[in-house]
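discrete fold record:
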Amino acid sequence: MYEMKTLLPQFDIQLPTCMYEMKSLTTKNKNSVQGLLCKIGAGQVTSTPTASAVSTCCPLDLDMLALQIQQQLLKISGDDAQEVILRQEKILQQLNDLKAQLCDIRISLGFNEKEEKSSHMAKSSYVLNVLNGGLREEPLHDIVINGHPKFIPYALLALKNAWKDLYTLDVKTFTHATVSDIGTEAKDFEQALKTVPVNTNNPKIIITLIWKNCEHTEMISSPTMYVPIYGEVNIIRYLARVGPQEYRYENSPLCNEIDAVLDICYQLLRCTIPKSKANMLKALHNRLKNQQYFGGNTMSVADIGVHSSLKRMPGISDKDLTPALLEWRNRAAKVTLI
């Protein structure tokens, strides 16, 4: 065949020595093709029927030559592919052997992750089916509460004390840049939160309280959507739904009574004139009557809400409360410690 002009000059290329050498495929292909051409030129290659039909007029027909080269290249590439497949199978076998060794080590150490996980999931599923009627529960996200230092959410401290043997509220406080000084009362509140003992065996929810120059106490429960829950009373409702079973009141016959008391607390915190405050205190007295606590003889989140609301309003003194409310507040203080 005719010769082609060299496109690249002959340079002395220094190959790197920092990497391993790979098998050269081009050399094998080049030698095979050269050998094929020599055989074809010598007439040693047996032509195929298609090639013989063409070679009747010309012993070195270009079409026949291309066909022979193509067949030889396919044969060469097939051998290389088979070699790659064999190496791959060898690597996979080594990985399977390594996996078996790791499994043996884990069993010898006494770990059986699959059985423990399946047993735990089965037990959790059974508990959820019993307590929730088969409804699936989602894991709790950490919640953030924004509050003004002048309107301290004492309900967090009350719930933390009341639930210390049932549920853990891990409250961490921070100060926003919009607040220069939180004041003595808020600092005492932070110190009181730290002194509550924590039982690590109890379920826990992490609450981040940020002192901020905001108009309302607000809670953000979703890390992806800014959907705040406004008002300390509504925060109490939320925590009651995710807190210990003893304080969940949705399935209680006193559900409407507890919600009514919490609604009174919400209105009480927004009273600006003495007459409206007196009306709300009278409504609380009518709800309490001769009971030990609001809604019955056991403490509920309604008592938490009332006690925190009265604590947040220093303008309400003992003389503004009825004897029944005074006795109730003394009983509640032994549990909430606020």
The longest strand covers residues 168-175. The chain has eleven helices and five strands. Residues 45-60, 124-130 have pLDDT under 50 and may be disordered.
